[in-house]
Write a structure and sequence with these properties.
The protein is mainly beta. It is built from three helices and 26 strands. Helices cover 4% and strands 46% of the residues.
Length: 376
């Protein structure tokens, strides 16, 4: 079914019901899979297209299992042909037994450089201890840069003092792509969606950091006016305003949205989007200027109020006021995702997915706009 109804795309699909248990069967194109290079788990996908037309797919490579704590490296695979083939696994940042994660890359269209934001903590420090101020260290913020289309990378450079307040404990960049503002007063600005938790109150908010000089210097934007939101994704609207779309912890189980008119420095009050249901999970928002046609917003997440299942891509032609078209990429277990526009004009979603668990690997799946809208 097309139009405003969901429909399924992919390879072979079988769905069996036994009481309340669903068993899914789909051939999934895992480009990161447990066991590769000795890593037991890959999580937290992020993907961008460089100015040279190369896809860069990032992930956290976890040495000893899928825990958020421990020996975690930032890794990369490159595709020069729109995702048909991928390079071998490359390590971007390995700091021994510590945690290097939350990849948030952005391509600077003026220079071609790739700027990669990331967070770090001691591998022995757990999130709960960092939040409770009982850890040995804290979450820190770093930036890496590639000037050769993602082939090699600079050392990680710490920017914590510019990107994080002293009374913040937990902190995350992305994890999803950043953007470069394309029009208006803030044209050229690099914007990275982030989140943090306050010490004492333990309230959690979203915010952005931004750079007006290609990633050399970073400024910290204001927090969202209300809390109970964290991992977020950002896109530029047709009028040049920015939209922040956030993971939400209140009982509505819908994504929260805020608008910035000053390039990501401040945000409007939060507003729930009833069309974007979620099980409390990360999502991805992308602006796509479709060649020869009007531009639109694309959004991906596991579209279910209870479970991390049903990876869905949605399209909006009116700056996110409504989401008329949608397609289900995978009805089975799925979690974090990141959208990208391919060189051939199609979209692709890089997402965590599997048959029995969302964390069986990271899937690359291409989808055309026509497949989503049903209009050839």
């Amino acid at each position: 079914m097309f139009g405003c109804f969901n429909f399924r795309i992919g390879f072979s699909f079988l769905l069996f019901f036994s009481c309340s248990t669903a068993i899914y069967s789909q051939e999934l194109n895992h480009i990161f899979k447990p066991g590769e290079n000795g890593y037991q788990c890959f999580r937290i996908p992020s993907i961008i297209l460089t100015t040279n037309g190369t896809l860069l797919a990032f992930a956290e490579a976890r040495k000893k299992g899928c825990s958020d704590t421990g020996d975690i490296d930032l890794v990369l695979k490159r595709s020069p042909d729109g995702g048909r083939s991928w390079s071998t696994l490359e390590v971007v940042w390995d700091d021994g037994e510590n945690t290097c994660g939350n990849p948030a890359p952005v391509a600077d269209r003026r220079t071609g450089n790739i700027i990669l934001l990331s967070t770090w903590n001691l591998g022995t420090d757990h999130e709960k201890d960092i939040i409770d101020l009982k850890s040995k260290d804290t979450r820190r913020v770093f930036v890496l840069k590639s000037t050769d289309d993602g082939r090699t990378w600079s050392d990680a450079r710490e920017i914590t003092k510019d990107a994080k307040k002293d009374n913040w404990t937990w902190y995350a960049t992305g994890p999803v792509n950043g953007i470069q503002v394309q029009k208006g007063k803030y044209k050229g600005r690099l914007v990275i969606p982030c989140d943090h938790i306050e010490a004492g109150s333990k309230k959690y908010y979203s915010h952005a950091i931004y750079s007006d000089d290609g990633g050399e210097n970073w400024q910290l934007g204001e927090s969202t006016p209300r809390h109970q939101v964290n991992e977020c994704t950002v896109a530029e609207l047709s009028n040049g305003n920015l939209m922040l779309n956030m993971r939400n912890y209140n009982d509505t189980r819908v994504r929260q949205v805020a608008i910035s008119k000053d390039g990501g420095h401040t945000w409007s009050d939060l507003k729930g989007d009833p069309a974007l249901i979620e099980p409390v999970c990360q999502g991805s928002l992308l602006r796509y200027d479709y060649p020869g046609k009007r531009s639109f917003l694309v959004f991906s997440n596991p579209a279910d109020k209870e479970k991390r299942v049903n990876m869905t891509v949605r399209l909006s032609y009116n700056n996110g006021k409504t989401w008329k078209f949608s397609a289900v990429l995978h009805e089975g277990p799925a979690a974090y995702s990141n959208l990208v526009v391919l060189p051939n004009g199609n979209l692709a979603c890089l997402y965590e997915g599997g048959i029995n668990s969302p964390y069986e690997g990271i899937v690359f799946q291409e989808v055309s706009v026509a497949d989503i809208t049903g209009k050839k």
